[in-house]
């Protein structure tokens, strides 16, 4: 792959990744659905923070419909975006700095806003129609770690040292 | 891809995935290192449960060295294993039912055992030497959800409804 081709691919992947979060921000279910790979032989998978794995367009898109129905406001500030390309697959990692609010319960326009720190691994496949999401895995960052610090209480610990 | 080729690929990917967890269980750092992609143009990425993203062999392998140094005992019971193949990339999702223990502090052989429910998305690339890990993203399952239930308190909520 030439340097130019790689730069072009990276720009297209970043645009697809941005479109994914913008569809969430605007609650645009149609755009969001179109961004996910049309699976069949290659099922799509999705993990929302703290959730089990969802597999296939039915399960995954249903989860987004429910999420959108329960969200009045959401904004993603993406940082630490990195793209790793290999052939027709692209791996994107980023930090999702999220500000969101659910529906208010007392007649106010918006419920309380909540800030969250989440990291995501998004896998994209190249298709004739552009890059499409094959997998999204997002998880909460549960505490500060040193740059490559290890947990004190086990290898796959949920609580890295604060 | 013929059905036979696909079955052969899936078997090889599953074997690589099993080898990854076995290397963790036996604390075999050399085997673990060999299973990760030799990155360069395509950096490897890793998210341990609750951690931020680690990128590149230096950061990723250092984290495993630290984890192994702090782990006296660990066993993974893998369930819900699914493989999605596209070209030279394979996506594996599984539930890691983990039982682990750190070093004891009072002269006993083993610290208290801790059980954890973690889900993982593991991305593999086909290389001349076999399938190698490109990305590992593991995250804690923080509560029970209905099969495709949505969180009550926000779209990327860390706490799905119990």
UniProtKB/TrEMBL annotation, chains A, B:
SUPFAM superfamilies: NTF2-like (SSF54427). Residues 140-162 are annotated as: Disordered. Residues 13-141 form the SnoaL-like domain. Signal peptide: none annotated. InterPro entries: NTF2-like_dom_sf, SnoaL-like. Residues 144-155 have a biased composition (Acidic residues). PANTHER family: NUCLEAR TRANSPORT FACTOR 2 (NTF2) FAMILY PROTEIN. This is 3-dehydroquinate dehydratase.
């Amino acid at each position: 792959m030439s340097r130019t081709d790689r730069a072009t691919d990276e720009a297209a992947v970043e645009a697809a990744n941005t479109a994914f979060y913008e569809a969430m921000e605007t609650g645009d279910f149609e755009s969001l659905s179109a961004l996910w790979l049309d699976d069949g032989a290659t099922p799509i998978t999705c993990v929302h923070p703290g959730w089990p794995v969802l597999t296939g367009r039915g399960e995954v898109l249903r989860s987004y419909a429910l999420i959108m129905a329960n969200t009045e406001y959401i904004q993603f500030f993406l940082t630490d975006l990195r793209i790793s390309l290999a052939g027709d697959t692209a791996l994107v990692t980023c930090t999702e700095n999220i500000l969101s609010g659910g529906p208010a319960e007392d007649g106010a326009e918006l419920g309380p806003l909540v800030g969250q720190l989440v990291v995501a691994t998004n896998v994209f496949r190249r298709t004739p129609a552009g890059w499409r999401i094959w997998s999204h895995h997002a998880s909460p960052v549960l505490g500060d770690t040193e740059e490559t610090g290890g947990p004190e209480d086990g290898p796959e610990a949920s609580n890295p040292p604060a």
